[in-house]
Every structure is written in structure tokens, then in C-alpha cells.
Specification:
The structure holds 2 protein chains of 2 kinds. By secondary structure, chain A is mainly α. Chain A is built from 10 helices and no strands. Chain B folds into 3 domains: 42 residues, no CATH class; 240 residues, outer membrane lipoprotein receptor (LolB), chain A (Clam), CATH 2.50.20.10; 137 residues, no CATH class. Chain B has a 12-stranded mixed beta sheet with strand order 7-8-9-10-11-1-2-3-4-5-6-12. In chain B, strands 13-14-15-16 form a 4-stranded antiparallel beta sheet, with no helix packed on it. By secondary structure, chain B is of the alpha+beta class. The chains are: A mainly alpha, B alpha+beta. At the A-B interface, helix 2, helix 3, helix 4, helix 6 and helix 8 of A face helix 2, helix 3, helix 4, helix 12 and helix 13 of B.
Chain lengths: 172, 437
């Protein structure tokens, strides 16, 4: 399996398999990042698609190939912010009601998780999204967030502990 | 793939880590965009190296944000050149007097000009430019064209948001990219003084600087500068206006405005003025063009009247809380100016604001209280915009924030006319009431 650096180099050379692999590797991170801003998975999906296209179109300007993930997620965040600012979205709705009323069935089955994640501090939400929902390696998360490896590990541990505690509270 | 299969894989899974992983897998299964991205890249043949996506994207979003303020203050019917009259009111220039320019502009029958807008050049930001065009025909027909941004942040002159409107008649808003339209209410409410061409004599501005002479497009002009807050006290702090007047016709040739949009320096330039040229009547037609459909508003974007009122009350409450007990001290409420005020009251610096925008949470989230304030301010954006829209469209809307405080239980802070003809009233203590006229 090729690493990100190799994939970006191949993508720069126009290799479509490399592009597909990069999308598959980072699409969950892109979608969940966009979702964290828009609170709408379908919109997050569209934003992610557009962000990937922008990224690949501008791939030549990326100097540090290994930083592709970090670069992509910056584009995603900005595109998501752009989207919500243009739409004046209602951002104070509870996620649970969002999920129950608007989102598809597959998502509603995980509706209980979203409010729990939202109770975490923002930096912990981010590492949870990247580690578990996006399945990225700790090293990659450290690169994306610009935090030391040890810090990321601790933040993930704390976040999981906090989530467990929240689950217990809900259960009791 | 549905979740049944995932549940089969780990039906007894209750551990949060495993559930999170399953959730991630479900996202991948149900929302995969690989094919869509490849298809789009293939159709656009864009798998070629380029430059500047990052900067373009970032700047684009902020520039669009700037355009909201601009639409609220200027583009929507703002014959921006009217500010020149304020500028000139106290300029005792032997060749160019206020009276002469007032006379020239009041005799004008039409005007059109180009609009360029972008963030000011600096080491930090790239400046793509949002461009548009504006038309005015006497006595009060307006058309503003706002070019939509492409994915790379570059304006697309073929994709436009067009607003055609007047002070007294219904207007129309068109989106040429989506080929949709919507009806708009007359702009009969309170507007920026920048838009009040008919009230020129009310201006009591003072030019802070005479910029001397310059030739623009081959035309000898005289330039002036003044602070924006002199022209429009509610436009926020720190902006300035520069105007160049044709010495011969005494009409504006170029106007530029520098202002701040939530800490970001934005420049707005009006140029290529065409005065008294015949304009096609079609430019001001409010009949939907052939092939256009009525714009649908998604259910989750709609808000009931009660939700709008609740949002406005919350926005006022937030302002009073952060400002130390007062409501916005303005006559006209601009959303972006309110946000600027609130960030300042909350003690959020430019660095923290940018960190928050970029979700670089380490910089701001260390201070939980500050982060909470940032979030609440950010969430009030839509409510301020609703408030501004009410003030723009409803001539009966009245805001009394300069004389009403949160302790004033019996004084009306803000009232306006509902669509059912009743009056919506918000009192100083933020009590809400509906009254029959």
C-alpha cells in the first residue's frame, strides 16, 4: 500500500488510481469535518466532493506532498464555512432532532452518538472524528492538527474516557 | 450497504470506541464520493497542476462574507456616488462645489458602474476580487449584479445573483446559474444614508483630506477623502471613502471604500461610471425570464415568524450581555457591524478570530469561556441578518436602541408590521407582544 506522499506524487502525474485512493483515504475525514460545521451530512458530502476537486485541480501548488490531508481539510473547512455563511443556517438545532427528522435511516441508527461527541471540547471532537470516524492513523492526525503525537494520543484517550462517562450518565 | 450488516458484524457491540468505528464505516459505505469526484475530474479534465487553491478558497469565503455587508449597505440600491455629495458638502473648492455636484447628480437620469471588491493585499491574504455591476435609472429603479464565485474563488461573470428592485414596487431576485427567481419586497424601510439620494441635504459630512488632481480614464478629476462613519455613523469604525470627481461634468468617475469586515480589511471600488446613457428597460424588468423557475426554500432553511422573533430577541440579549447592558447604539442595524461589535466586546482578537475560523482550536479553545462567546456570536449571524432585512423592507419598522435599555420594561425596543397586519413588539426587557393596529 502506497503512503500519502507516494500517492500525491502519482496523482500529480495524473494517475487516476492514485486520485481514487486519496479520495478513499480521506473522504471520511473530509465529510465529517464538513459535517462538524454544516451539521448536514448531505451538504457535507457535496462540500467534500467540491473540495477534493479543488484540491486535485490545484495539486501542483502543494509543496509538501505529505501534508495533503492537512491541506485538504483546510479547503474543506473553508468551503463549509463559505457554505453556511451564504445560507445563514440555523445552527442551534439539536443534532438529535436533526438526525431524527431530516437524516436518512442509516444515520439515525447512530443518532445517539452525535450529541455525545458534541459535548466534548472542540479539540477532542476533532481527534475523535479523525481517529474513529475517519480511521486515520495517529501520526496523520498529528500532522493534520499540528499537535505533537503524544498530545494527540492523550487527547484521544481523554475523549474516549469522557464519552464512556457520558454514555454511563445517559444509561443511568 | 445498510447498518444491518454492520450490526451483524458486531451485534453486541456497545463499547463506544467500536460504535464510533462502525459509525465511521457506515459513513464510508453510505456517503462515498470516490466515483463522484473521479467523474467530475474527468468531465472537467482538471487533473492538471495549478496554483493557489488554498488561498483562493479562503479568500473567496471571506470575500463573500464581505459581500453580505456590501449588499446590506451599498449594492442594494446604493448609488454609491451619493456619498460624494456628503464629501463635497463642506469642501470649498473654487472649481467644484457641493451645490454644483448636487445639481449635476440630481439632473442625472441614469447611471451604471462596475464593482470590484476584495480583501486588501497583505502578506497574509491573497485578494481575489468579487465583481459586479450596478444600474440605476431615475427615479428609483435599481439593478445590482453580483458575480458568483467559482470553486477556486474567482468570480464568474456568467453566473450572477441579480436583484432588480425599487423603493415602492415588488422586485425580483434571479440566480442565473440555477435559473431560479424569487420575488422580493419593496425596499421601503430604513436604509443606509448612502442610499438616500433624495436626502442629500441631510448630509453633514466633512472631508478630511483633499487628494488633489488625477486623470482617470483620460478624464481630469479632483479627489477627496473622508471617514465612512461621517457618511454613515452605523457603518462601523475605521472605514474611509475616496472619491474622484470629473472636473467637467461634476459627476463621479471613481469611488473607493476601505472598511473592515470582522477584522478583515476589505476594499470596494466603483468605477467605469456611465452617466446619463440610455439603459435598456429590460434591465429593470421584474418579469421572470423564460426558463426560470421559482426558487424553492428547503424546509430546514425556513423559519417560522416565532422562530425569527425568538432569534432576534436572543441576538439583542447577547448584545446587551456582552456590551455591559446596552443595545446597539445605531439607527440602522447591519449584521456584520453587530458581529464586529460583539467580537470586540468579547475580547476576541484577530488572531483568535482567524484561529476560530480555521478551527485551529488550540489557540482559542484553551479559554472555554471565550470559545463559548465566539460560538454564540457566530450563531447570531442569521438573526442580525433577519433584523436588517426587516428594517430594509418594512417602512414601519422602528428600532429604538439608542434610547431604550434592558431595564426599560415599558419602552418599545423594536417593532415592525407582521405579514398578517399585526404589530410585532419587542420591549426593552425583551418581552414580546403582538398588537392589533
Amino acid at each position: 500500500m502506497r503512503n500519502t506522499l507516494e500517492l500525491v506524487e502519482a496523482a500529480k502525474a495524473g494517475e487516476s488510481e492514485a486520485i481514487a485512493e486519496l479520495v478513499e483515504r480521506y473522504q471520511r475525514a473530509a465529510i465529517t469535518t464538513a459535517w462538524s460545521i454544516t451539521r448536514d451530512f448531505h451538504e457535507a458530502q457535496d462540500i467534500s466532493q467540491e473540495s477534493f476537486v479543488i484540491a486535485f485541480r490545484q495539486l501542483g501548488s502543494l509543496k509538501a506532498n505529505e501534508a495533503f490531508g492537512q491541506w485538504l481539510l483546510i479547503i474543506v473547512r473553508r468551503a463549509a464555512l463559505h457554505a453556511i455563511k451564504n445560507k445563514f443556517p440555523k445552527v442551534d438545532e439539536s443534532f438529535s432532532s436533526d438526525v431524527a427528522d431530516v437524516q436518512p435511516r442509516w444515520l439515525s441508527e447512530f443518532a445517539d452518538i452525535l450529541p455525545l461527541i458534541d459535548q466534548l471540547p472542540s479539540h477532542e471532537q476533532e481527534v475523535i472524528r479523525l481517529r474513529y470516524l475517519s480511521d486515520l492513523a495517529i501520526e496523520e492526525i498529528a500532522s493534520i492538527t499540528g499537535r505533537p503525537l503524544g498530545t494527540v494520543t492523550k487527547q484521544i484517550s481523554r475523549a474516549v474516557a469522557r464519552l464512556r462517562s457520558l454514555v454511563s450518565k445517559v444509561a443511568s | 450497504m445498510n447498518n444491518e450488516r454492520l450490526k451483524t458484524v458486531d451485534d453486541d457491540c456497545r463499547d463506544i470506541e467500536r460504535r464510533l468505528m462502525l459509525f465511521g464505516k457506515a459513513i464510508e459505505c453510505n456517503l462515498s464520493i470516490t466515483d463522484r469526484v473521479l467523474e467530475q475530474l474527468s468531465s472537467e479534465s482538471v487533473a492538471q497542476p495549478g496554483t493557489g487553491a488554498l488561498q483562493g478558497s479562503h479568500s473567496g469565503s471571506l470575500t463573500r462574507r464581505g459581500s453580505l455587508k456590501t449588499l446590506q449597505k451599498l449594492s442594494v440600491g446604493a448609488l454609491a456616488a451619493t456619498v460624494l455629495l456628503a464629501l463635497l458638502s463642506t469642501v470649498a473648492d473654487s472649481r467644484l462645489t457641493f451645490a454644483q455636484v448636487v445639481d449635476s447628480m440630481q439632473k442625472a437620469t441614469s447611471c451604471s458602474y462596475d464593482i470590484r471588491m476584495g480583501m486588501r493585499n497583505s502578506e497574509t491574504f491573497h485578494v481575489p476580487e468579487l465583481t459586479g455591476k450596478f444600474y440605476w435609472q431615475a427615479p428609483d429603479q435599481f439593478r445590482s449584479e453580483d458575480y458568483l464565485l467559482q470553486n477556486d474563488g474567482v468570480p464568474d461573470s456568467l453566473s450572477k445573483e441579480i436583484n432588480i428592485f425599487s423603493r415602492s414596487e415588488k422586485g425580483i431576485a434571479l440566480n442565473t446559474k440555477e435559473k431560479t427567481y424569487s420575488e422580493t419586497l419593496p425596499f421601503g424601510g430604513r436604509m443606509s444614508p448612502l442610499m438616500a439620494l433624495q436626502n442629500l441635504s441631510d448630509f453633514e459630512a466633512a472631508a478630511s483630506k483633499n487628494l488633489g488632481s488625477r486623470v482617470i480614464n483620460g478624464i481630469p478629476c479632483t479627489g477627496f477623502e473622508l471617514a465612512m462613519e461621517v457618511v454613515d455613523p452605523d457603518s462601523g469604525d475605521g472605514g474611509k471613502l475616496e472619491a474622484w470627481i470629473d472636473n467637467h461634468t461634476r459627476l463621479p468617475q471613481q469611488v473607493s471604500i476601505s472598511m473592515f469586515d470582522s477584522f478583515i480589511p476589505v476594499d470596494l471600488v466603483f468605477e467605469n461610471f456611465q452617466w446619463n446613457e440610455p439603459l435598456d428597460e429590460e434591465l429593470f424588468s421584474v418579469v421572470p425570464p423564460t426558463g426560470y423557475s421559482l426558487r424553492k426554500v428547503e424546509a430546514n432553511q425556513k423559519r417560522s415568524h416565532e422562530e425569527i422573533v425568538g432569534g432576534i430577541v436572543d441576538a439583542f440579549r447577547l448584545y446587551a450581555e456582552l456590551s455591559g447592558g446596552q443595545y446597539p447604539q445605531v439607527k440602522v442595524i447591519y449584521g456584520d457591524v453587530m458581529l464586529d461589535d460583539l467580537y470586540r466586546f468579547a475580547g476576541i482578537s484577530l488572531e483568535q478570530y482567524m484561529a476560530a475560523i480555521n478551527k485551529d482550536n488550540e489557540l482559542i479553545v484553551k479559554d472555554k469561556e471565550l470559545w463559548d462567546k465566539y460560538s454564540r456570536i457566530s450563531e447570531s449571524t442569521r438573526d442580525w441578518a433577519e433584523l436588517n432585512a426587516i428594517m430594509s423592507h418594512d417602512a414601519s419598522a422602528l428600532y429604538n436602541g439608542m434610547t431604550v435599555a434592558p431595564t426599560d420594561k415599558e419602552k418599545v425596543l423594536f417593532n415592525w408590521r407582521r405579514v398578517d397586519g399585526k404589530d410585532q413588539v419587542i420591549y426593552g426587557d425583551l418581552r414580546v407582544e403582538v398588537q392589533s393596529p
